[in-house]
Amino acid sequence: MTLMDKPSLLDRLRQSEVGRSIWRTTDRVTPRDRAAAHWSSFFLHIYPVKMRREEIMIRYSWYLGAISTVLFGSLVVSGIYLMFFYVPSPGQAYTDIQTIQTEVAFGQYIRNVHRWSAHLMVLAVAAHMARVFYRGAYKKPKEFNWVIGVVLLLLTLLLSFTGYLLPWDQLAIWAITVGSNMARATPLLGAEGPGAALLSIGGTKLIHVGSDARFALIAGRTIGGGTLIRFYVLHCVGIPIVAAWLMAVHFWRVRRDGGISGPM
Predict the structure, then answer these.
(1) pTM for the full model?
(2) 90-107 pLDDT, tens per residue?
(3) With 73 labelled, which of 114, 118, 217, 236 sits at a CA distance of 20 to 30 A?
(4) Rg, C-alpha atoms of the chain
């Protein structure tokens, strides 16, 4: 056996007892064997086995979906690191941010990675949606996946919005004050929104300043400790879990619908 014929370390691992229990399909000789290996992998089965050559070229998709996913992963990893040193308390939040930037190992670097990943993710998701729209990739049979993408875009904006308050400085507080005031004009759910007066029982309005969308968003009539806790839970737990689940469904539907492109 020559050096060229000698199996690599990865091949030997695949052929071992442990490797066969992990990879299941180890012989990838024919296209059918390769497809079987593809289907047996948890990380690969969500993608279609066959794709058009044009779909995998960078100029076709610019890998905007993959870039958005990588940025989301960067946000999760850096966010978990920052959570170790942050307490969502009005009396301690701003001090913790200063401590992260001055005393925590790699604190300022990780916070900058988190902040820039958030900005870039908003741009990447918006550009991804624009590409899908102009390519016509939202058309049949991908209508449902387009709706999921729209929801993911909204969740991306909500992630950015809820994270803005966490430093608890004057810029964050007043920015959230302006942003949350817009919720008053939410149709049906805002006290000043269209249709709010129509929701009443026995002459009593159901939607008012103490029960509208703004009140639910900031946990009161003014921004305070309850708002910080609510935004912290939404930013670190609620929205990321929903977004991760929808992303999994989004990837699965890409496979089920036959690839990333729309009608050729």
Answers:
(1) 0.83
(2) 999 999 999 999 999 999
(3) 217
(4) 24
Question: 189: number of CA atoms within 13 Å, CB side?
Answer: 10
DSSP 222: S
10 Å CB burial of residue 253 (0-12, 13-18, 19+) is middle
The per-residue b/e assignment along 6-31, b for 16 or more CB within 10 angstroms, e otherwise, is eeeeeeeebeeeeeeeeeebeeeeee
**Cα angle vertex 40, ends 38, 43, to 5°?**
70
Q: Are 131 and 243 in contact (CB under 8 A)?
A: no
pLDDT tens per residue across span 155-177: 999 999 999 999 999 999 999 99
Place of tokens 């790699």: 106
Residue 187 tokens read as 């149709």
Dist. CA 31–CA 38, nearest whole Å: 10
